[in-house]
Amino acid sequence: MKKHWSFALSTLISASLFLSACGGSEPAASTSSNSNSANEESKHLVIGATAGPYGDMVKNAIAPILEKKGYTVETKEFNDYVQPNLALASGDLDANLFQNEIYLKRFAEDKKLDLIPLIKIPTAPMGLYSNKFKSIEEITEGATAAVPNDPTNIARGLQTLEATGLITIKAEADPIKISEKDIAENKKNLKITPVEAAQLPRALDGQDISLIPGNFALAAKMDLTSALILEQMPEHYINLVAIKTADQDKQFVKDLKEAIESPEFEEIADEKFPGFFKPEWMKNRQK
Q1: Domains within the chain, CATH numbers bracketed
Q2: pTM of the full structure
């Protein structure tokens, strides 16, 4: 088995309900002092993203393309998964980038917000990492395995583990709700320990293997391509750009989508975000 291979599976957000974290912390300082959302005629855009790779994606891959179209782009970074959608709905942002479609739909319904997806973007996948083993085949009987303890990410983690052949999951299990009780066979009697997702990189020192969501791996300065296996992300877990429904026909939205669909964006993403899983529209373009 090669070190890096992906697989097809049925799993924000790094996150929590769907991104492996959530909270109500205040947003971090933005890259500009101007925090007003662009109106229909404005060429100044405010795009929100979580601090880290997705904030970097806005600044390094999206903003330069939009600037060639005459826009000025302010990147406002957040440290949680609640404020970006509230800020978008209130008009403080023109778009945000941090979540998948399941999380967006649930959040918008719960908070009664009129938000919709615009386009999916390359996303950091979960990976199986080890400081002890160099391949899946080396994993020994009774090895210790840390997995995320939140509902969505443990489902993703166990499906990733199943792809290695080390466990099997009950056929009738709901792919989004898989937990330890859905393990049908633990072929090497792995000692599975649920751990808070943000602590999984640190847990790697005390565990034989650890299943780490991509955003937390990157936050810990880990190389995604060093994983023994990276998940083959289903479309509903791939992150997206969200906008207000009322803005969907505005020119800045059309220009934003066009920027992300451009070959230039993909080239920058390939260079600066190695190991990120591409959405179907981008993969289909390569065929």
Answers
A1: 44-124+236-286 (3.40.190.10), 127-231 (3.40.190.10)
A2: 0.77
